[in-house]
Amino acid sequence: MNRRQLLKLMGFSGAVVAVSGCGGAFGGGSAGGEGSVKVGLLIPQSGVYSPLGEDMRRGWDLWLEQNGGTFGEYEVDTVVADEGEGPQTGVAAARRLLNEERCDVIVGIVNSAVALGIVDMVNEAQKLLLVANAGAGDITAGQVSPYIWRTSFTNAQVARAMGAHMATLDLSGGVYVVAPDYAAGEEAVDGFTAAFTDAGGTVAGQSMPPFGTTQDYQPVLSRIRNSGAEATYSFFAGSEAVTFVQQYNEFGLADEVPLYGSGFLTEGQVLSAQGQAAVDVRTALHYSTELDSEANSTFVEAYEGAYSAAPTVYAVQTYDAAAVLDQALRGADALDGDAISEELSGLDVLASPRGEWRFDGQSPHQEMYLRTVESVDGSLVNAVTDSLGEFGQSS
Amino acid sequence: MNAHATVAPTVESAGAATPRGRRDIVRVVLLVTLVLCLVGLPLVADPFATTTATRVLAFALLAVSLDLLVGVTGLPSLGHAAYFGVGAYTAGWLSIHIGIDGPVALLAATLAGASVAAATGWLAVRSGGIFFLMLTLAIGEVLHQVAHSWRSVTGGSDGMYGVPATTVGGVDLANPGFLYWYVLGAFGVGYLLIRMVVRSSFGAALRGIHDNEPRMRALGYPVFGYKLAAFVIAGAGAGLAGGLLVAQQRIVTPDDLGFTTGALVLLAVVIGGAGTLWGACIGAAVVVLVRDYFGPALDGHGPLLLGIVFVIVVYVMPRGVAGVAGIRGKERAA
Amino acid sequence: MPSILASNLTSLLNGLSIGFLLFTLAVGLTLVFGMMDVLNLAHGAIYLAGAYIGWYVMGADPTWTVFLAALGVAAVVGLLAGGALSLLVQPLASRPHLDQALLTLGVALILAELLSMAFGDDVRSVSPPSALAGSVDVAGGSYPIYRLFLIGVGLALAVVVYLVVERTTVGALIRATVADRDMVSAVGVDNRKVRIAVFGAGVALATVAGVFGAPVYGARPGLDWTILILALVVVVVGGLGSIKGALVGALLIGQVETFGRSLFPEFASFVLFGALALVLIARPRGLFGAPTGVKV
Amino acid sequence: MTAVLSCRNLSRRFGAVHAVDDVDLDVEPGARHALIGPNGAGKSTLLHLLSGVLSPSSGAVALEGRDISRLSVSRRSRLGLSQTFQHSLLFLSMTARENVALAVARRHGVRPWPRRRVHSAVADRAGQALGTVGLADRSEVPAGSLAHGERRQLDIAVTLACEPRLLLLDEPAAGMSPAEVERLGALIELIPPEVTVLFVEHDLELVFRLATTVTVLHLGAELITGTPDEVRASDAVQEAYLGTEGQHTDLFLRPEPAVDPASR
User: Fold this and answer.
1) CA separation for the pair D205, D211 (Å, rounded)
2) Are chains D and A touching, using the cut-off of 8 Å on CB pairs and a minimum of 3 such pairs?
3) By residue range, what is the domain housing residue D42?
4) Considering only CA atoms, which of A63, A41, A56 is closest in space to residue A313?
């Protein structure tokens, strides 16, 4: 009986909609005023990723400040929303930016799950999403969406660079591979292992400790020691990177088995928290503050002037996101996803503090650097010791 | 056999009939207004508000199902989100890989929630009070880890994404308004079913267990079985709610069955006043609005607002919490 | 193979040091529960406050003096915070467990946010006092001295707690209260002051544990929940309200977290809660919890 | 005639204490069987062993010839063995009628959906049971608001509503005023003769008024079982246990502090 009543109600409301044909949830809506572009900056402001969010915001603000706050002819109106720690907050915040704030473009996103979680939303809204950090390959692989582009990296891309490099070292005892047990960790492990073994390297062992709940890496460190490996490749970020690098040193492995990793292992604030334990750790990444180029030194100087802090790769990626949007909006005749995407696919080489890069598909094709942590005047930096060649999402 | 036995209890109730009848009319009017407002919402609200309301409904059903445990049976669970997640993953997986119709996915989600609740609940319902709280927390965390680690099925921390828009009879409900009605309908069914359980003799027995478990045993009730049954029904409700969540959110991540979700839904039940199902819905609305609507705009201070709400509720709304009274007494007595 | 023996020895030792750190953490939680019937879910956030105090006071290269100063500051802050929390909880004394637990959960959310505002969201790592920095060779591998120090601290604390509880009048009152709260109040002991003091002491143990733990776990947002869950598992495994249980539970969970994880790396995510579930299946009230289902 | 309830070699130890020590007991059909003895004699423990609240260390309990030693409280209850508790255990947040209804409803089958006809049958039966114990006009009062004596009455109504074959009463008169005890006595006398009653009671006057058989427990063991007159006349009880005639009332009538665990 209840069900019939319910169905009746549903039918009734359906009829109302059919008649009225408009209203509330069913209406469309277009973005802000003439001559301005509304950008939703979706970055973590709370939770464990918030330091990254801070860097991203600075990169974004810095570019706008340097370039008069406009993309092409458009005034930029930035709305910031909190991505939080994951999709529960991030997806809701994205929806707010798209539906409530009616943003034309969304920029940012640290957590891959958030990016993947809003794919459908972006597709349906036909708005551009420019990912400025999240590294899951799937975000821009296999045409998930024509509207999702990225100015950062893929997890596998960075790992492959290190894998290819380590295969050229004389490590007859093999390399031990460690990454947290989650999607990004797995992508890094797969990317590293494929590139490393293809080039003739031997993997001495592999551990994937639980993500987010591991406080103590001693069991892993014991296994590394017992494996007889001559080097360790690791993928860690944030607090796990701090803990891992410090314990790697405390348990005496740093002197015996050199530590390598993807660059997030020693990037930004993480490095200063690790302190001396991080010295001599070698990582691969597409940026370092120590890059010797004019573009970079100008950028670093401006950044340090504005924020009294050294820039990070996260700031650069968002800085570049602004630059990319600027280029695209110079040519675009509209602010919808199709128009901007078309402009993006036509872009050539982009100049950036990280060096020149271009889009390979919808993700950067860029040079990777070998970085070694060194102590310079009492503070730690990622000195650039080598170039690892150019890598794209798939090659 | 006793003179008192012949006293007729009907005299009193006959006298009370008229005011009660009037109260019933007021109630019906209120109810109809409420239903009309709920149904009419997408006609006036913008898509964002409509979508938020859809989320509120999914979360409210989760809270209602938890209320069956916390408020009615007196079993405070911190791990109820686990069954919510199980339902969401089930519905999501079936939609992605088999492409089944929305209502079928919901049914599957309900069954999955119930089966996992049955498989894990026997462990939890052996205990009560704080120990039940901890065991459910442990079960929730284990399932959370499974969601994290079983990447081939769940997609791990990236979540199970790319869930297609819900279809009903082959028509897809990409429009937030239609989706809202679909979720509202399913919510209504779930709510009424749980309300029916609460009002049945079984529900009375559950309240008896809440109030005085040893006495229920002495009356011959198989208490363990009843608690397990309540746990399974609550799990089914949570599974259905999970199916509704994925219909709206179209991604499921391990966070959806984590500790935070479990704690938030418990908060929702407490805000609304444990033991009253509609109260749990109001609590759910408050929690979702704070988290999804106001939270993202607060420069990252959403959790602070939530904490303050938490504290205020515990202090200022003791009636809201009255339903869980008795946990303490029971624990002593057991 | 000797190296496998060595690594197992290291695991064992490490489990011991983690276990004793967990004990300093859990004993406060279990004390407050046993005495006041309050499951203090703000314990993790309070630990984190202690860790931030450690970070703030100790600086880059701390000496013994600075380390002791940090412990002192943490203890004082903890006592005051505990007293305040006890007053917050007081009005809810007649309400069920869940209400008080929920209040402390709200306090935990607020405190964590305040800490994040005050200290930022960066990961802070803390150096041990310089005398304890560095590593020594243990069983063929090197092992951080500070962790050995933690074993000593934990042992000392266990002895102190034992002496206080078993040999002093306050301890007798504590034991009596844990055994039968109503009896103690019926006898006419004004335990209001005692309760404030015990709450203060329990919370101070958490902040002190924060300082001790800072050189191992650092200080960062989110650590509060990790720590809370570990502490809860410890006290539930040991039996809520039992101090002996907290010790045994902490040492057990310490081994589970190190030895268990190294024995079953593929199930590392599950060993903690697996152990909890196993203990509760066998003994629904924990190892040293009150016996179940006897009285009606 | 076989005993309704019998136990053989029943023992229960708490650590080194033999609370119940090798007790044999037979309760005849229709009997009003009293268990007496001073505090610590093991009366309540024995009752709990019979009802299943406690499990025996050794020995067996049989209900109408069927071994029930390993059955749970609720199984025993369904077999027709019901009990009241020393401190009335009631559903304090529910009305008196709802308390009784819970007892009645189980026998009508519990279902997770509404059944109007059964519901009204249950309500009628509950009202009747309340009438039987003299609480008809208190049926809509929450059990928590009832006076102590009324709670006892309600407790008995709830237990009777289970339609037991054997009723175990644990100190039904504890904490009652003389007037209430008088009413209680009348109430117990009204229990249908086909229901066997086994009760523990300190109030000897009530015991000798109601009992057809009396068992005296001492230090966990059975001292004597017999008719009230036999027990009264027993030298063993008089001398070894009750002391002199003048003291025995004091021994047995010491009022117990009435504490209800569920109301705190």
Assistant:
1) 10
2) no
3) 1-80+164-264
4) A56
Q: What is the pLDDT of residues A175-220, one digit of tens each?
A: 999 999 888 899 999 999 999 999 999 999 999 988 877 888 988 9
List C-alpha distances in Å: C18 to A332, A368, C10, C54, C62: 59, 39, 12, 18, 22
Q: Can you read off the two tokens belonging to residue B316?
A: 């200022």
The string of pLDDT tens digits covering residues D5-14 is 888 888 888 8
One domain, residues D129 and D203: no
**CATH assignment of A156-285+369-391, given 3.40.190.80, 3.40.50.2300, 3.30.465.10, 3.40.50.360?**
3.40.50.2300
Interchain CB distance below 8 Å, C3 and A213: no
| Nearest CA among C93, C105, C33, C97 for reference residue C290 | C33
B202–D110 C-beta distance less than 8 A: yes
DSSP string, B88-101: HHHHHHHHHHT---
Per-residue H/E/C for C141-160: EEEEHHHHHHHHHHHHHHHH
pLDDT tens, position by position, B171-205: 888 788 899 999 999 999 999 999 999 988 899 99
- Give which of A45, A38, A56 is closest to A85, Cα–Cα: A45
* Confidence label for A230 from pLDDT (cuts 50, 70 and 90): very high
State how far the Cα of B244 lies from the Cα of C93, in Å rounded to an integer: 39
Q: Which pLDDT score, from 0 to 100, does residue C47 have? A: 95
Predicted confidence (pLDDT) at residue A17 exceeds the cutoff of 80: no
Q: DSSP secondary structure string, B152-184?
A: HHH-GGG-B--PPPPEETTEE--SHHHHHHHHH
| Chain D partners (3+ C-beta pairs within 8 A) | B, C
Cα C117–chain centre separation:
24
Q: Min CA distance, B123 vs chain A (Å)? A: 24
- H or E element, residue A71: strand A70-71
**Relative orientation angle of helices B176-199 and B223-249, to the nearest 10 degrees:** 170
| The length of chain B, given as a count of residues | 334
Model ipTM value: 0.81
Q: Which amino acid is at B176?
A: P
Phi, psi (degrees; rounded to nearest 5) at A84: 70, -150
